[in-house]
Amino acid sequence: MNAFHSRLAAACAAVALSAAAAAPIAVAAPRTAATPPVKDASPMFSAPRQTEHRGEHDDLLSAGLGLDGLRAALPPAFADPAHPTAAELRRRALWANWRGIADLAVGGGYGEVYGSVQRVEGREYSAYATVPGAHQPHRVLAQVPDAFDAGKRCLVVAASSGSRGIYGAIAVAGAWGLPKGCAVAYTDKGAGTDYFDLDAGLGVRADGTIGQPEDGDLAFVPSAAERAAAGGIAFKHAHSRDNPEADWGRHVRQAAQFGLSALDRAFPQQAPFTWANTRVIAVGISNGGGAVLRAAELDGEPWLDAVVAGEPNVYVDGARPLYDYTTEAALLMPCALQHKPLAAMPAAPAGAAADAYCAYAAANGWLGEGMAEASNEARAEAAYRRLRDNGWSDAALRAGALSVSFDLWRAVAATYASAYGRYAPAAKRAGKGPDQPWLPFAYAAADAAAQPPTARPAAANERAAWWADASGIPPGAGVQLFAPPAGDPAQALAPLAGLRALWTGQGGDGDAAAGLAAAHRRVREGIAATRASAPRKGVPVVVVHGLDDGLIPPAFSSEPYVAMARRAGAQVRYWQVRNVQHFDAFLGLPALAARYQPLLPYVYAALDRVEAHLADGAPLPADATIDTGLRAAGQPLQAPQLAIPR
Questions:
Q1: For the chain, what is the mean pLDDT?
Q2: Is 471 a catalytic residue?
Q3: Do 109 and 134 form a contact (C-beta atoms < 8 A)?
Q4: pLDDT digit string (tens) for 283-315?
Q5: pTM for the whole structure
Q6: Contact 305, 279 (CB under 8 A)
Q7: What distance lies between CA 214 and its chain's CA centroid?
Q8: Which of 286, 393, 533, 557 is catalytic?
Q9: Distance CA 164, CA 404 (A)
Q10: Left if phi > 0, otherwise alpha if psi is -120 to 50, otherwise beta: which for 174?
Q11: Are 335 and 329 a contacting pair, CB within 8 Å?
Q12: 321 with 530: CB under 8 angstroms?
């Protein structure tokens, strides 16, 4: 008998002994001195909202857009661009988050070979939740379908991928759970798109519209001192001063608690919904995958029935954390990709920009002796060898070209350095206080026509769209990332080297060396706080990872996590999928569609297998290395090409 059935049987037995008249699906374990309450009694939730989503032009999964509307090249328009309504913002946020995660291109297979965007009507409940000791809240949201299956009482809980907003897992958890009659609870895990305009003194309200701190319901508000000292734009992942990644697991559990509370409100005649009588499955990809793995390890009352983690950003003792390999890639990968065996990647950088990276790496001694006078070809090979020696596969390097092309390595490194160090937004004037970042990266609206881009105040229509359009990490949605200025053109890459130095602790002299040492300790302590441990015994876990992942290579994440968890006796299954990289959304590009398959079908299939295990006692899936087929150029995806294990 699995854990869920054991708990449900205990609850039903307790009711039978007390001769209660309620049906078994509506009962909860008795609250006695030996059985603590299943919901946190502390007032962790604030700014609650409830909205209904029904009718021809609205629903839970796509705000009425459907697959055709989500495929539209332009986002849903605002009637008044400077003052969009909450409903307009929600519709646009769903459009943006679907397109940021799933391959919706015609021929890509979504909605035909796998996945669903069917209409699901119902209610949404949202609030802010706060973990003890945090400066800022995280968003939680529960979607409760009208067709909720009271017979199986299923709650799917998910964390947004990347640093996305509250709808950042809609294509992962919502698309699987809502059509099956499950409720779905989400968290932005302390990141998200609640940007704060420091120049205008404006932030994002609970409903996504723009407001002032005095309104009392903003999702992210820097302190008064920070608002006075800094300019430009602050965002929660980098500037909350909470190092949210350290609490990702707690964010997921609080979202699940909120989901149970939402079910109580939606179906009071069947309440209470508890850990004992409601099946809880956690799922996420990328950072969301790391978050649900962290949730699986939490101590306390059993609450989680199963976990599915896709391409998780998870760090375990003895492995390389994200910050280490991201800062390495930021400096060396543009050069290494010029090595001829890798140069076939369509998105690989070329020309003078890549040559500058090779020259800078050679001048700083990162490529070995004699490279300062070597040819660019020799430097590229040396950079390639260095990355290979440090664990990068050829497949990961080829796919990593996407992160080079989209400036992701720099964006991620700057954001996470600030988050791990718990730094405030960079002050307008360089300061030396302990809460000012060692490297004053800044964020602001930009005049894109200027080269290089120049910072300027944000316009009202730009600010109004951030919550819906942004990915949670600039650059993007009209917000630019500005590095500390370099007076010497030859030192244009010095800020990247400075980010790398926060990991290595090497660089500088005199006062600069002392400042680096303090910042290095601060960032390293933040990274150490994110280290994962094994899931609780009895919680089945399925990890799914593409072997071509170039952003979070499995060699640095899933592989060491699975090994650690198994040494601890955990129940873990591992699917490794060939020809799958990190970004399904990029497969709309024909050159990438011919090279890669999407990850989402395997996440959905793993969820199906976990559900069958919990509901019917079916065996968990076996470990598998999945050999996918590839599409011919211009041809649609066919189900046999996915080779999903049965």
A1: 90
A2: no
A3: no
A4: 999 999 999 999 999 999 999 999 999 999 999
A5: 0.92
A6: yes
A7: 30
A8: 286
A9: 20
A10: alpha
A11: no
A12: yes
